[in-house]
Amino acid sequence: MSVKQLDTNAIEKTIGYVFKNKALLQRAFTHSSASKKGTQNYESLEFLGDSILDFIVAKRLMIENPEAHEGALTQRRSEIVSQEPLEKAVEKLDIAKYLIVGKGEKNENITNHTKVKSNLFEAVVGAIYMDCGDVEKAEEFILFALKDSFSGNAKHGGEKDYKSELNEYTTRHKLTAQYVTVEQSGAAHDPTFVVDVKIDGVACGRGVGKSKKHAEQEAAKIALKHIEGGHS
To answer: What is the pTM of this model?
Structure first.
């Protein structure tokens, strides 16, 4: 699909940003099944967008919750930047339909996968920044697309952040927690990760999830159960 074939006007109107370099917009909407070249698919843009997203969400939460504890801010950020909220934002914007995928992947309805939609969101963030070099423009899109995720309250809500809790424990006892991916299986668009958490080199928990973040949370949860059991 060429740049002319991609409905750039419709996408730009939806996301609220007009690209100087239309090729970047096409790249942000090109799945690796359509092009394996790193300069033509969205994977590296997704990598950049993920980092920008973490920063912008952290900044926003700090502004909204100036007295919140670090653990509460970490938990709330994890909730906002997880796959499900990003998927919902993409669905609300209705932009997954523009995703360029390989012919074989179309039969598997790849654009309906949570991970693919969340990756697309991050790729758009990365593409906006690459196009203008202005993090504030990326911030405008993030805050617009995720406005329903910011409630002004970072104290509670959502799933418990086991990684933060384990980190607090290891820091308090002057230990080191390390997360190691021991296995990745399944198709590229629907992977399963197995992660071990080691405390000072000793394996203390194994987690399984559809993303590394989820698998790490599960591993930390199990490690905390072992710690609590050992102290009971």
So the answer is: 0.65
